[in-house]
# Entry
Amino acid sequence: MTQDRGYLSWFEIVRLGLVQTALGAIVVLTTSTLNRVMVVELALPAMLPGALVGLHYVIQLSRPLWGHGSDAGGARTPWIIGGMAVLALGGVLAALATALAATAVWPGVALATFAFILIGGGVGASGTSLLALLATDVAPERRAPAASITWIMMIMGFALTAGLAGSFLDPFTLTRLVAVTAAVCAIAFGLCTIAVWGVERAGHAARAAAARSGRALSFKDAVSAVWAEPKARRFTVFVFIAMLAYSTQDLILEPFSGLVFAMTPGESTQLAGMQHGGVFIGMIAVAILGARLSGSAFGRRQHWVVGGCVASSFALAAIAAASLAGPGWPLAPTIFVLGLANGAFAVAAIGAMMGLAGADGPGKEGVRVGLWGAAQAIAFALGGFLGAAAIDLTRALFDDVSLAFALVFAAEAVLFLFAARLALSVEDAEPLSDQTAELAGGAS
# Structure
């Protein structure tokens, strides 16, 4: 039994997944709801919330530092709870800043800037330490399904908060916005504290000993040591390219549906919901099919990462074709397939990350996870901007909206193919099925 060796039980893994739910709850309010309020209700330039969201990604470049701190301290729990406290404070201040901007724009912008710095730091500290805890205290054969569980629970946090908070925001006032945001942040912090309290005890002693043996390494030396590991370095490059391809579509899919397919805002929002539904199903499919295909070549984790990237590339190529074909194309099913492929690739990559985090020895798991998180943050910060800028550039060059979107989606498809090639070089294939089979057994 893995539990006899001090690893976390399935119940404890699900408890830790609630931390991701709490993270998602705050992040969706600050990056989506406040974004809309600034642009629509306050009529502020769209670049303002765009810059604030980009700032919170830039701050997440500090993820390796937070990971190193939890490595050196030998305990992740204080970093998880402390990061969530900073995130919750940033969420409340962001709502207050939005309300302030209605009457005093520049003081509101200044407060919002500080708030999003806190949000980026809080997400980085809490999220990195949580993934490092999963990488060290979850049995190796459970790490991929644990990744599936925690990521799915984060998406649940997005969905539940968007639905429930949205219902409480109407009839809309800025006072109500601050109250609802403060309530969500308080609930999220309480949920995180309850979820993580006492869970770390199982593997703490062994990891603390490993941390003490590695404390002589400074942050710079620890990062250099991790970067010198071929697998860690290749995986960092893979994460950046894959997440760049993943995020470049974020800000252009809804404008694409409106400009090329003449969809209304409500229809384009439903289209985005279909994509997210595909992501959710794709994530679950990785766990279920991995268990069903136990013992076969199709159950290997690396193959799921590569297959998800290739499938995402084909789906984006189909969307490029849809741009040229116009309204007669079955766009909704195509977007759903893109979501399926994205979900399968994303959760398989997270499982690979957790497997690699402790593969080359203990004491630097947090730095490894932090380095990959920083690569993802850079990709997300660049992706949305580059996608939008590419559309503006191609429209100016060719004066053809359909051709502009087709070229950009085709370029994203090529990026995903490049990511698939990088994934092949990261590690020897390792069975995903061994990890997902126990999820099926634990759930039965």
Notes: Residues 428-444 have pLDDT under 50 and may be disordered. The domain at 217-444 is CATH 1.20.1250.20 (Growth Hormone; Chain: A;). The chain has two domains: 1-216, 217-444. The chain is about 80% helix and 0% strand.
